[in-house]
Each structure stands twice: as C-alpha cells, then as structure tokens.
Design a protein that fits this description.
This protein is an alpha+beta fold. Helix content is 54%, strand content 18%. It starts with 14 loop residues before the first helix and ends with a helix.
Length: 98
C-alpha cells in the first residue's frame, strides 16, 4: 500500500519556506522586502530559506539595481510550482483521510 505521506515534500516543512512558496504561487514575483514584510522574518532567516529553495531549483533569484539600491527578486520556477502543488495536493489528501 502506498504511504499517505509519500508526496509531502520535506523542502516545504518549514513555515518560512511554505510562506515563500505560497507568496510566489499567487504573484509573478516578490522582492526581498515584500517577502520579509509579509512573512515577518529577519533578513538572515529569509536569506537562508531562499538559498535552500534556490538550491532545490524551486525558485530563481534575480539581482539588480533600482537606481542606486540593490534589489533581489524571487520567482517560482516551473519545477518549484509543480513540486509545491504536489505538496499541497498530498496535504489535502492526508486531511481528507483523517
């Protein structure tokens, strides 16, 4: 018998990563300050979790300057969107079995 939690993705276990992906699923992109404000996290926490998602190829990071200020923008990749949707589907199945 298939495990009911088989498709739950460990990359999204942490609430900050779950929040980052949730924001990126409903927005084309989000910059560092937007994510920081929406999620209520510190610079260091946000940076470490975005790096982890980037390492899994779930998000892409674009750095640029707007005027003289650096700006970091995050975008969910096609692979990231699929992995996150599979994760949400698995959670929904788990809840419906309870």
């Amino acid at each position: 018998m298939k495990s009911i939690i088989q498709n739950i993705n460990k990359a999204f276990d942490h609430r900050i990563r779950l929040g980052i992906m949730s924001v990126l699923m409903v927005n084309e992109s989000a910059d560092f300050n937007m994510l920081k404000e929406l999620l209520g996290v510190t610079d260091g926490n946000l940076a470490s979790h975005t790096k982890a998602l980037e390492a899994d190829n779930y998000i892409a990071i674009e750095k640029q300057f707007i005027g003289k200020k650096p700006n970091t923008k995050y975008i969910a990749t096609k692979e990231g969107k699929k992995a996150f949707q599979d994760h949400i589907d698995a959670l929904e199945k788990l809840l419906s079995k309870s």
